[in-house]
Design goal:
It is built from 11 helices and 16 strands. The protein has 389 residues and is α+β, with helices and mostly antiparallel strands.
Length: 389
């Protein structure tokens, strides 16, 4: 049941009128009572951070990481809107706080949609009463909350984990403006595990690092990226490593769902760099390859053009020796020692036609390794991003 799977949480989503299409556009995840949950978060590193990001950071600080609700809207990012944008984000928190009867700074705010377009908060103000009244801890409430945050997403994104005495649930959205630089999307993750703020933040930061921070769709970092973890503390207190592993699994699932649903994407591609000097070295090179539009275009054409990969590896500004490089697509080796080799063309064609492809780049320099997930780049992506409505 995603965000309502853990004990202590309710959710809902409605169509308030933000979107001209009439589709659902307002979501709420809240605690079952007026008792707040422990909350930690990670936010975009974009210096053009949207008003909701700035307000949520402020509220977390002033409430000492205690949160009763997260309100999320789709259809308008409320980014690059100056002081009015800040007031609008604060108003969203005020509307929810008043309806729930809680402190304003215990409400966090997330927005997603078009950037630089003023947000009309009237539909939100008028819709909050129904949004709160419809809060539910069942599957329907969870489903509505997940659908209401979708923009160019074609399917809702949720993931759960059922542990020994605790559970984790989540909703997320994201299909573009995704680059490996903190968060890369909107997500609310709930758990009933008993956690300290330090353990919760450490687990979330690590989970984000190995999942969302290793996903590239188009090399663009959004102004609104936010991942929030809420803990009701109504379950057991798991070992920190057990919780961290479970949270990592949930975040990896969400990241893969985002890649599978990326704007115009036909293929999910894992860029796996091995034989690096260390993990950081491998990650730098994997991100360079994954972010290359030329490489992504070759995936769309099912073309094993390993020369483009070699070029990106060589231009990453870190240690690299072309004469040591080997490249494989789906286990079919196409280059060794920095030159092309004979391979089974039929087998490779079959591998390249699959929905998911693994590209291995062996540097033969050391024992470091890292994997970054990306997609192909298609004409549909361009068509989607030519318009603003």
């Amino acid at each position: 049941m995603s965000v309502t799977t853990p004990k202590g949480f309710r959710a809902n989503g409605i169509a308030s009128g933000i979107k001209a299409s009439g589709e659902m556009d307002l979501s709420l995840v809240a605690t079952n009572t007026d008792l707040p949950a422990l909350a930690v978060a990670t936010f975009t590193q974009n210096r053009s951070a949207a008003a909701p990001v700035r307000v949520s950071k402020s509220h977390l600080a002033s409430s000492n990481n205690l949160v009763n609700a997260v309100i999320l809207n789709s259809g308008n990012a409320n980014a690059a809107n100056g002081e009015k944008g800040m007031e609008d984000a604060k108003d969203m928190a005020r509307f929810v706080a008043a309806e729930l009867g809680v402190r304003e700074d215990t409400v966090l705010v997330c927005s997603t949609g078009l950037i630089g377009i003023p947000l009309d908060t009237t539909p939100i103000r008028l819709g909050v009463k129904d949004l709160v009244a419809g809060l539910s801890n069942d599957q329907d409430g969870a489903n509505r909350s997940a659908r209401a945050i979708m923009t160019t997403d074609t399917v809702p994104k949720t993931a759960t984990h059922l542990g020994m005495g605790f559970s984790i649930g989540s909703i997320a959205k994201g299909a573009a403006m995704i680059a490996p630089n903190m968060a890369t999307m909107l997500s609310v993750i709930t758990t009933d595990a008993k956690l300290t703020p330090e353990i919760a933040q450490s687990a979330l930061s690590q989970a984000v690092e190995v999942s969302f921070n290793r996903l590239v769709i188009d090399g663009c970092t959004s102004t609104n990226d936010t991942v929030i973890l809420l803990s009701s503390g109504l379950g057991v207190e798991p070992r920190p490593s057990v919780f961290a592993d479970a949270l990592e699994g949930v975040c990896r699932s969400l990241a893969d769902q985002m890649a599978m649903d990326a704007e115009g994407a036909h293929k999910l591609v894992r860029i796996r760099v091995v034989g690096a000097l260390n993990e950081e070295h491998a990650l730098t090179l994997a991100k360079k390859v994954a972010s290359s539009q030329l490489v992504q275009c070759s995936f769309y054409g099912s073309d094993p053009y390993w020369g483009r990969i070699a070029s990106e590896l060589g231009s990453a500004g870190v240690d690299f020796d072309l004469d040591r490089l080997s490249v494989s697509y789906g286990g079919v080796e196409v280059a060794r020692g920095g030159i092309s080799i004979e391979f089974d063309a039929k087998a490779l064609e079959q591998k390249m036609a699959k929905r998911e492809i693994v590209v291995d780049c062996d540097l033969a320099l050391g024992a470091g390794s890292a994997t970054v997930t990306t997609t192909d780049l298609s004409p549909e992506y361009i068509a989607e991003n030519m318009r603003t409505s």
